[in-house]
Amino acid sequence: MSGDFAHGETRSHTPPLGHKALTPFYDFVIALLTRERKWRNAFVREISPGPGDKIIDIGSGTGSLAIAIHKVSPQTAYYGIDPDADAVQKARTKAAHAQSNAKFDVGYFSSDMARFDGPFDKIISSLVLHQVPVAEKRRIIEEIFEAVKPGGSVHIADYGLQKELQRLLFRVTVQALDGIEDTTPNAEGIIPELLSAAGFTNVAEAIRIPTLTGTISIYSGRRRQLTEN
Fold first, then answer.
1. How large is the C-alpha radius of gyration of the chain?
2. Is residue 227 part of a domain?
3. H helix or E strand, kind and range, residue 148
4. What is the pLDDT of residues 109-125, one digit of tens each?
5. Which helix (H) or strand (E) holds 166?
6. Any domain includes 160
7. Which site from 9, 60, 191, 197 is most exposed, i.e. has the minimal number of CB atoms within 10 Å?
8. For the chain, what is the domain count?
9. 10 Å Cβ neighbour count for 65?
C-alpha cells in the first residue's frame, strides 16, 4: 500500500481513546482495562492467519494486532490502514523492532483502495466500529464485502451487545470518552445485523469477553464462493 491512499482525505476521525492527547497512553490503557491479552489472542486464533494469506486491518492503530499476527505467522502479508498519523508512526516503529514486514499507511479504508493490493483473503478490524456513526459503520462493512475475495472472511473484535453490569461499565468508560451517539448502536448489537445486510453468510459471534470497559465481542462472516448459490 502507498501513502497515496490518504491523498485528499479531509474527514475527521476519533483518535485512540477519543482524544489526540491520550494517544501516547493508548497501549497502556488498553492493556490495563480491556483484558487485551485474552481478547487479542482469541482474535488472532479466530483470524487464523496463514503464510498464504493477504490481510488488511482497518483502523490498525498502534500496531499491536500486526505484531500478534506476525508472531503466529511471519509470512502473512499484512497491511494496516488508519487515519491517525501518530498511531501509524507508532505501528511502524513496533513493526521495525519486531522485524515484521507489516506495512502501514495513513488514510481511510475503501474497497477501491483495497483492490489496489487486493482482493484480500481476510479483512479484520478491532475497536474501531464503535467510534464511528451508523452510516460509517455500514459503509465500512459494505466496502469490506466488496474488497474481500469470494470465499474470504471478515473478522471484527469490538464492543458488542452490552448487558447489565457490562452496560454500566461501557457507559462510564467507553461512552464517556467516545460519546453516546456513535457507541450506542454497538451496545445494542448492531454489528451482526450490518454484516448480514452487507451480504456476509455464516455471521457469528464467536466469543464474548467481559472487561472493565464493557463486553468485547469477536464476530466473523464469510463471502460466498462465486460457485455457491
1. 16
2. no
3. strand 148-159
4. 987 766 567 789 999 99
5. helix 164-172
6. yes
7. 9
8. 1
9. 26
Is-contact 187 161, C-beta < 8 A? Answer: yes
Residue 228 lies in a domain: no
Peptide bond before 51: cis, by omega within 30 degrees of 0? no
Question: CA-to-CA distance for 151 and 166, rounded, in angstroms?
Answer: 35
**How far is the C-alpha of 40 from the C-alpha of 101, rounded, in Å?**
20
C-alpha cell recorded at residue 112: 477501491
In sequence order, what are the residues at sequence separation of 6 or more whose Cβ sits closer than 8 angstroms to the Cβ of residue 227?
Answer: none
Q: Which residues contact 228 (CB under 8 A, 6 or more apart)?
A: none
DSSP state letter for 99: T
Parent domain of 166: 3-222
CATH label of the domain that carries residue 100: 3.40.50.150
| Count of CB atoms situated within 10 Å of the CB of 14 | 19
Helix axes 36-47, 26-33, angle to 10 degrees: 90
With respect to residue 19, please indicate whether it lies within any of the assigned structural domains: yes
CA–CA separation, 12 vs 147, rounded Å? 23
